[in-house]
Each structure stands twice: as structure tokens, then as C-alpha cells.
Design a protein that fits this description.
Blueprint: H1 2-21, E1 26-32, H2 37-50, E2 54-59, H3 63-72, E3 77-80, H4 86-96, E4 101-114, E5 122-124, H5 125-133, E6 150-154, H6 159-169, E7 178-180, H7 183-192, E8 196-201, E9 209-210, E10 212-214, E11 221-222, H8 226-230, E12 237-244, H9 250-259, H10 262-271
Length: about 280
Amino acid sequence: MKTKKITVAAILLVVMTVGFSFTALDKITVKGSDTMVILSQKWAEVYMQKHPGTTIQVTGGGSGVGISALINGSTDIANSSRPMKASEVAKLKAKFSTLGVEIPCAKDGISIYLNKSNGVNELTLKQLGQIYSGKITNWKQVGGVDANIKLYGRESSSGTFVYFKDNVVKSDFAPSCQSLPGTAAIVNAVKKDKFGIGYGGAAYAEGVKDCKVKKDDKSPAYAPTAETIKNRTYPISRYLYMYLRNRPTGAMKAYIDWILSAEGQKIITEVGYFPVK
């Protein structure tokens, strides 16, 4: 009886050892844009359920952090809510002799978050730039109540910060702008502050109201919706990107092909973003 137990244990050990030797997982690491974290985690979750031989690890930190990780070789995919800078491409080329691969994978609109009690409903791009640069400091200057505007924004490593600065503010942010570590933190701050204003991905706008945005004084005001972001009538629309060091092969190619397929793109709309096409 004792011998039989040892034999069975030994057989089980051999079977387990052999089994594990043939089931090594393909591991893909994804790092970067906080705007894209919700979407990337959902992609990874659904894909791993369908492909148990692949494990996908997703972390945030900001677009700049993801691109730095791509350059130093510590991630396979860098998520970014802005295009790579020429200086970043130069560093990638110097280290890996490659210019990298840019893959637009979704569209997003940068929402302007206002507290639900705020009587202001629309702003022009120029007004937004003046608010965040500190030239407009009181809500009454844009049709609201007589109260100081409280500014909330992202940290400088964020792709959303870079895009908003380059395309809306077009100068330095006001020193009074409070930098927060993620879009959810901005939404939470504006939700609690009736005189606050913030910006971030459209998918995060819960518990606050979206301010309509006008390209200029003579243009209509648009809210960030699926239609206005898809046709680019919402003035602060952008692509979201995945960056790789080289053209994908094997498990990574299969994963990216799936993301760009009808199934992967359908998940984008379910999460609150918008298909790339």
C-alpha cells in the first residue's frame, strides 16, 4: 500500500513536470498612458480569456513613462495619448537602431470637466487656453458667477498634459494649476469643487458635466460624443497610440491584430472610447 502511494505520487510529479514544460506562457508587457489604462486592461482581460497561453501585464504611469520604458527595453508596448517626440525617436534609434513602430489603436476626445453646479456650459478653445495659462481667473469673465477658477490638470509626464498644452494652452500652465497623478483624480477633484475645472479622457467623465467646446467665437459648440469625436468636429479630438520597437511577430502580432480587428475595436466603444476608423 505504501509502495503504491509513492508510485502514484511519482507518476503525478512526472506528469506535472512534463505538462508544465510544454505550457510556458507568452508574456506581453504594456506600459504608459493613464488615459488608456482602462481600455488596455479590458483588451488584455478579454484576450487572455480567449488565449490562455498568453499573459498580458498592463500598467500606467503616463505616456512619457511608457515611452521611456520602451527606450530602455523594459516594456514591449508603450501606450501613448500623444505622438512620440523626435528626441524620443532619436534615443530609440541610438539604442536599438530602429525608429520604432507607431500603431493608432483608438480615438479619444479630451473632455473639459466642470462641476455639475457650474452655470457655464460652453467655452472656446481660446478661453480654455486663457483659463489654463492664468489670463482668465474668474468665472464671471466667461459668463459664470463671481468666483475664482480652480485649475486641475495632469503631471508633465502625461501625454494628455502635452497634447493639451500644445493644442489648447499654447503657453505655460498657470502656477495655480494643481497637477494630479491621474484623470480619475482630476474628475474626483472637480466633482467636489464647484468652482473647479479639469481635463482628461472622455471615458472618465462620471459625476461631472462635460463642457461644450467651440473652435472659435463663430463656431458651434460641441460636446465630446461618439459622433463628434469620430468626425473630428469636437475640437479637442486625438488618436491614441501603441508604440513598439520593431514590427510585431508571434504572440505580440496576434494580440495587436486582434486589437485592430472588429472584435477588439468593439471593446473600445464598450469602455467609452472610439474606434480608430
